[in-house]
Amino acid sequence: MIRRPAVLPLAFLLLAPLLHAAPSERLFVDAWCELEPFVRLGDDYPLSREKASAILLEEARYAISGMIYGFSFSYTPSDEARRVEDRFELKPLAEIPWSSPRLAVLDMGKEERRMTARFSYSLTDQEAARRASWGSNTVPLATGSGEASVMGGPGERLTAIREAVKDAVREHLRSRLYNKPREVTGEVLLWEGPETGIRSGSYVTRVKVRLLLDEIVPYRFY
């Protein structure tokens, strides 16, 4: 079992220089944050550079962790005939800490009313090997898109990522299962960095994932 690293202060990372680490393989994530969100959720409005930086870092940390360690999931499709509601649970298997010297801000700037940033993470040999194991042709690729209302603030971008992962899992199962299952469990890895935009008052995110199914539980009786 992979232990979750401790999360350390944001300032430690933002003040740390870009390190030229030994591992040659890197992951990259692009993120952006509105400085004037559609809804004012607190006194910090427009968002300060520090607040916007924290939001960007959390999104990048979440995405990169999902690209290295992945998530476990449990999915119960809705079934009106059985009065079963749709349920999807997604849990990170581990997360990189904010203070990791391998996580660096390559570029941070401002475009119109947004703060943008590109993050880089240098993989250890163990992390690179973990991703390589997911890259096997026997591990299926799936894509999905998810939405979350901008009315909830920039933090809802993570909700859009989770909804996109759910959509990828659902579409993968639809193409392979004839009968609707009672529950499906497994693991999923973000294969690329999520891509997020805004459309019709919602954050819209697209993801590409690799997934492994642990168990498919069928309905025993109708």
Write the layout of secondary structure elements.
Layout: H1 10-14, E1 26-34, H2 49-68, E2 71-76, E3 87-92, E4 103-111, E5 114-122, H3 125-134, E6 141-149, H4 156-174, E7 183-190, E8 195-199, E9 202-217
Antiparallel strand pairs: 1-5, 2-3, 2-7, 4-5, 6-9, 7-9, 8-9
What overall geometry do the principal axes of the alpha carbons give? Answer: globular
* Count of strand segments: 9
Report how far the terminal alpha carbons are from each other.
37 Å
CA radius of gyration is: 19 Å
The count of helical stretches stands at: 4
Mean pLDDT: 86
The sequence of SSEs as H and E is HEHEEEEHEHEEE
Low-pLDDT parts are 1-23
- Percent strand equals 25-35%
Structural class: alpha+beta
Helix content: 10-25%
Q: Tell me the count of domains.
A: 1
**How does the major sheet shape up?**
6 strands, antiparallel
Structural account:
With 222 residues, the protein is of the alpha+beta class. The protein has one domain. It contains four helices and nine strands; from the N terminus they run αβαββββαβαβββ. The chain has helices at residues 10-14, 49-68, 125-134, 156-174; strands at 26-34, 71-76, 87-92, 103-111, 114-122, 141-149, 183-190, 195-199, 202-217. Mean pLDDT is 86; it is low at 1-23.
